[in-house]
Amino acid sequence: QVQLVESGGQLVQAGGSLRLSCTASGRTFTSNTMGWFRQSPGKEREFVAAINWNGASTDYADSVKGRFTISRDNAENTLYLQMNSLKPEDTAIYYCAAQAFLYAFVQTRERPYYPYWGQGTQVTVSS
Prior knowledge:
The chain is mainly β. It has strands at 3-7, 11-13, 18-25, 34-39, 46-51, 58-60, 68-73, 78-83, 92-98, 116-117, 121-126. Strands 2, 4, 5, 6, 9, 10 and 11 form a 7-stranded mixed sheet that branches.
């Protein structure tokens, strides 16, 4: 059974930092684009960041560019999201996801192109 498991979410003050992790089991995603999405109450799940299979290409939502950094460790089958200068509007459940394409970096912001999802981890930023 393929699983993506996120961790690292917690309550933090505005201006603080967090690092989220996402570990895959059941299969590896070392050849696949992976991404982070987030969802706040009453809002649709939105794209945050994506990274290609070897980390050479990344994509970020404008709202997090310059503050968040996506990275991956294929040896550990783990995806990361370093979040700095956190704002209350970053409060959301954060989900990691993986595409099925191999060695491609396309449609990175589109949820339907990510068939594999984790269960999410809560990030709360207090003002």
